[in-house]
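Inverse folding, one chain.
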């Protein structure tokens, strides 16, 4: 089969494109013909060596996939050949990556693709949809009527946070970087969308928060958080969700934090159990079927262009280039 893989960690150009053996599914695995995979920041961290997971080579990159079941292991009970599926959490902890024509995936990490959801859309929404749902509901217990703030409302996770929060009746504040992104975020029902290039951004957010009693859930997607600003805008007993900023060491306002009875949750989606992730997957499938969740595709690349896809992801994650709206998808058929 064709695959995008590395034989050493490093810059995006270490990704090679070529032939590797088609995997044989184990007893609890299914062989998926990959219709699409997606690129996430964690994929670039693993490829670069910043997250030291890639230790055996060749190493196929990619966490997310969607496609069609071709073959089932002897102990598989949840799927059969011909089923359309999507999943995430691959390329981690010894699991093979997904940037390939085929992938052998344990049934615990796969979910049925809803009718009408293409493989490209399913792959684009997989990691970010599960991540957003875990943060919003397993950790922060978001409720209808509460005020939620998220940075980057049209980014991968940010777009999922906005849509899933609105689907349960929350009021949403989001920041964006352009008029086009503002219009997109507003189309999902966001109650206040502020351009982060505006000199009045903090004033607009602060006024909305003050008029409504403060922010109940702050979903932090930025690598460098500003805790003084965050804590000041929070409502009493508000919750702060952290899922970014591996190297961040911000100053922390201890006094205002505890006086407001605030809580903070740090989480990485790959720490969630298969059962917890399946609950989130079922919820985002239901949101798609209800028309309240539409994963966004930014750009699509072929398998041979996976190194370019990683370079684009890095430019937007590390350099804040602002040239991407939605997810990067890799299509093995191109």
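Residues assigned per position:
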């Amino acid at each position: 089969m064709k695959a995008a893989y590395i034989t050493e960690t490093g810059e995006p150009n270490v990704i090679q494109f070529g032939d590797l053996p088609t995997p044989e599914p184990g007893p609890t695995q299914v062989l998926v013909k990959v219709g699409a995979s997606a690129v996430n920041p964690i994929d670039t961290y693993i490829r670069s060596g910043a997250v030291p997971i890639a230790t055996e080579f060749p190493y196929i990159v990619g966490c997310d996939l969607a496609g069609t079941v071709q073959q089932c292991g002897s102990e598989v009970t949840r799927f059969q050949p011909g089923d359309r599926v999507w999943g995430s959490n691959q390329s981690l902890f010894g699991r093979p990556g997904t940037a390939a024509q085929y992938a052998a995936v344990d049934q615990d990490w796969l979910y049925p693709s809803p009718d009408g959801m293409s493989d490209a859309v399913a792959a684009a929404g997989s990691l970010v949809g599960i991540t957003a749902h875990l943060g919003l509901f397993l950790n922060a217990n978001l409720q209808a009527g509460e005020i939620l703030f998220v940075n980057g409302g049209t980014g991968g996770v940010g777009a999922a946070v906005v849509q899933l929060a609105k689907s349960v009746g929350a009021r949403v504040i989001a920041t964006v970087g352009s008029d086009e992104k503002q219009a997109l975020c507003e189309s999902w029902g966001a109650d206040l969308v502020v351009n982060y290039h505006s000199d009045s951004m903090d004033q607009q957010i602060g006024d909305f928060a003050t008029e409504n009693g403060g922010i109940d859930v702050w979903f932090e997607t930025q690598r460098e958080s500003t805790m003084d600003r965050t804590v000041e805008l929070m409502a009493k007993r508000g919750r702060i969700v952290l899922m970014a900023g591996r190297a961040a060491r911000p100053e922390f306002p201890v006094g205002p934090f505890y006086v407001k009875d605030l809580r903070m949750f740090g989480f990485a989606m790959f720490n969630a159990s298969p059962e917890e992730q399946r609950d989130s997957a079922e919820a985002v499938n239901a949101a798609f079927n209800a028309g309240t969740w539409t994963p966004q595709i930014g750009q699509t690349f072929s398998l041979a262009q996976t190194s370019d896809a990683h370079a684009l992801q890095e430019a937007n994650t590390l350099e804040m280039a602002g040239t991407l709206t939605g997810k990067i998808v890799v299509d093995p058929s191109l």
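The chain has nine helices and 16 strands. The domain at 2-113+296-331 is CATH 3.90.180.10 (Quinone Oxidoreductase; Chain A, domain 1).
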